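Batch queue: ligand-bound targets. Current item pairs a single chain with fe (ii) ion. No template structures supplied; prediction is de novo from sequence plus SMILES. Inputs echoed for audit trail.
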Amino acid sequence: MALYAIGDLHLHYQSELKAPGQLHDPVWKNHEERFLRNCLRTIGEEDTLVLVGDHSWGRNLKESEMDLDYISCLPGRKILTRGNHDMFWGIRKTAELNEIYRGKLSFLQGNFFIYKDVALVGTKGFTFEGPFYLDRNRRIVGLDEKALAHAHKLVEREAGRLRESLEAAREAGCRRMIMFLHYPPTNILEEESVFTRMAEEYGVEQVVYAHSHGKDRFHDSIQGPFHGIYYRLVSGDFLNWQPARILD
Ligand SMILES: [Fe+2]
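Prediction returned. Tokens below.
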């Protein structure tokens, strides 16, 4: 029995592809088939696969049904967190989606699921990505203060949802936890964030995230050990569509 994770499938069986640039990078060529093949080779029915957001380009549930059906047909138990492009997943829809897809898919946001003796907690998260860049001396250039203030609000909201998830797991008596976010826990300007501090506060063992896809983005945030927690980027293209083994 093992726990696997991957993110950013960006399926579009029913909807228009909104990032045509994807088509030019060979890593995205037939990625649905390659990922399915890798899953069938790797994941057994007793295993769990967490998909950390950006599942579908669909603009609503109707337009995402075939994408969610594809995920339902993957082997093992499937748990999904919400990505910034998952328009089918309204913020108050988590319980409803868990009802609609009962027995097929589980939706993780502010709640938690159990894998062996470990609580799988999570939310979408948020990191401010610009507009700004770092110059050669790592000085911030072109920072938009208004956008930054708005980003702070989004971070606070997501931090609240994450705390709900962590608290629910703690109240249920869970001692071990793994945290799943869609967004990286920090942006390229940060060494730590409310998400990394919360992971430390609750004694989380691993933080698993995606969203950073394309070679230029792979090193936007923390990877490997940091303050006693192991951070993993699991964007599909980073993993070349091979689900990452998170825990045995
Ligand atoms: Fe994303």
